[in-house]
Amino acid sequence: YLTDDYWDGLTVLPAVGGRPEPRRVAILGNAGGTVARAYGHYFPRTRVDAVEIDGALTDLGRRYLGLRNARMDVYEEDARPWLEAAEGGYDAILVDAYRQPYIPFYLTTEEFFRLAADRLAPGGVVIVNVGHVQSSDQLEQVLGATMAAAFPRVLRDPIAATNTLLVGGGAEISAARLEAVAPDLPFELRPLALAAAARLATHLPGGEVYTDDHAPVEWLIDGSLLEYAGG
Predict the structure, then answer these.
(1) Whole-model pTM?
(2) Which of 70, 1, 12, 28 is nearest to 195 (CA)?
């Protein structure tokens, strides 16, 4: 159920608010269901709404990746329209819908993150997987600044060389809270939570705030790829 990759972080970071077991989770960009499967195993009482625009990926997950979760509902829809229609009340909204090299601009804007914040339960968090070119911080800076326009606090977990998890929530979210509840997590998740707590820090400074009217994310990614290729 664990992958030794960024997906594992999505199972423990919701606890930065001090609740070890989330009651409801939405996964935007469920793909083959790696995270949903882990929730079904480690948090069998958690209700999971799994949103994936490409139903073929869900079929592949069920056929080859053991995608099973008795408390999961799967929605074959685009993430933002689905979230607009969703009832809300989530302890965590996990955004893993950024598929490199291009990502939907409308999932990177202040309006989107304000919508996500509105769909949270009190104390809930939004966690975004930011895939990026190794050693390039530009995309993370922009998303950190944009999330900070919608949330009182934004933390970063540089969990892998090409992945950072950004956590947006209330002023109370902290590494200390995650560390404090780590002993209450399932045994296999405890060391992951402690490692994440040790990495957590405030989001990177810099970056402009993207809006629905101005979100040149494709230009930003093209530039970072060219810079990386030019070495």
Answers:
(1) 0.93
(2) 12
Residue ranges in 68-137 assigned as alpha helix (H): 79-85, 110-118
Residue type, 223: G
Active-site positions?
96
Integer Cα distance of 3 and 38 in angstroms: 10
d(CA 187, CA 20): 12
* φ/ψ bin of 206: left (φ > 0), alpha (ψ from -120 to 50), beta (otherwise): left
Largest CA distance in the chain: 49
What span, in angstroms and rounded, lies between the C-alpha atoms of 43 and 70?
11
DSSP string, 164-178: EEEEEE-TT--HHHH
pLDDT digits (tens, 9 = 90+) for 83-115: 999 999 999 999 999 876 668 999 999 999 999
CA–CA separation, 137 and 95 (whole Å): 19
47-82 tens-digit pLDDT: 999 999 988 887 887 786 778 888 889 999 999 999
Helices (H), the chain: 6-12, 34-42, 55-64, 79-85, 110-118, 138-148, 175-181, 190-199, 217-230
For residues 51 and 19, the answer to whether their CB atoms sit within 8 Å is no
Q: Using alpha carbons, list the distances in angstroms from residue 108 to 19, 99, 210.
A: 27, 12, 7
